[in-house]
Amino acid sequence: MxxxxxxxxxxxxxxxxxxxxxxxxxxxxxxxxxxxxPKGKHPLQLYSMGTPNGVKVTIMLEELLAAGFDGAEYDAWxxxxxxxxxxxxxxxxxxxxxKIPAMLDTTTGLRVFESASILVYLAERFxxxxxxxxxxxxxxxxxxxxxxxxxxxxxxxGFGHFYAYAPYKMQYPIDRFTMETKRQLDxxxxxxxxxxxxxxxxxTIADMATWPWYGRTVAGESYDAGEFLDVGSYKNVLRWYEQxxxxxxxxxxRMVNRTAGSPEEQLLExxxxxxxxxKTQDKLT
Length: 285
What we know:
The chain has helices at 52-66, 89-94, 115-125, 135-165, 171-192, 205-218, 226-229, 235-245, 248-253, 275-278, 281-284, and strands at residues 44-48, 74-78, 102-105, 110-113. With 285 residues, it is of the alpha+beta class.
């Protein structure tokens, strides 16, 4: 067991003390190297990776295309966060926070960063698709969208970090963030016992935002911690997870910029709808 830590009067950065992501985490912002971002032919240029935050947006884009919004055609460029692509000068110009996903709308000339902001932007850009216009339903959608944005850091940066990525196991933070993760799963489970989707009867951007985080967790795909979290006990979240996963745009969206899992489910970059049939990793390798 490590000795009890006494914080110094002024904190200084130990670049080696960061666990699995020590080589990338730093206490300053800004670019580390000069590199322009590529641009394709479509109106929307997405720079991302198939993490839960990235999957939120590719699901939305595939849902928009499936709904007939041709203007939502997009190029999805892979940003390898493990290699520091997010610290290039081109990426920082679009997102000064150096986090994926980030998007450039070449039609409006606007940059959009932060996953929830991208979801709302796309919904409003395309006739409020998957975002109700009546006040009660819209408010409930935004309630759950912002619930996710405030809750997911406890699951990923809290539980995920200390359970899977920290340099050694520490009971206190694991217990603390496990308790919070299970509380959040219980919030969802109780709510979904009485509602088909998060905002009620309609499938919305709130579901698209939450599914890659908490759906993946109850499916046992997060941090190899399914048994530890007893994810099978959240029956209503599992029902919701399976119902959304049955959607064809969701299956496509989770493949885009994916770098792990079965090769046939990895589409590192997406520039055309036909790429799902011809350019997954099993076909390229």
